[in-house]
């Protein structure tokens, strides 16, 4: 009985230290949770940024192919270039296109 009474007295005596200790534990757990959540959000943001850059790069490349494809078709149906017999005339005609 005496030992139980002593334990209760010690708990009452050190209750503020116990409360502070438990508070630090909860604050630490909250900090860990917040840090893990921040890392996850940073990963999502980085993934979205990389995805956006990849889409922009793909659009830029596809626009280059689109322009080149239609340029080739324009030259293929151009009457001046189809019936050229003289290479000097073809160079002159192409130089006119380049200057545009």
Q: Which terms would index this structure?
A:
single chain; 100 residues; mainly alpha; 4 helices; rod-shaped
Describe this structure in words.
This protein is mainly alpha-helical and 100 residues long. It has one domain (2-99). It is 92% helix and 0% strand. The chain has helices at residues 2-13, 15-77, 79-82, 87-99. The chain is rod-shaped. The termini are far apart. The model has no long low-confidence stretch (mean pLDDT 80).
Short description:
By secondary structure, the chain is mostly helical.
How would a crystallographer describe the biggest sheet? none
Q: Percent of residues in helical segments? A: over 70%
Number of strands: 0
**Mean of the pLDDT scores?**
80
Order of helices and strands: HHHH
The best one-word shape is: rod-shaped
List low-confidence stretches: none
Percent strand: under 5%
Topology:
Blueprint: H1 2-13, H2 15-77, H3 79-82, H4 87-99
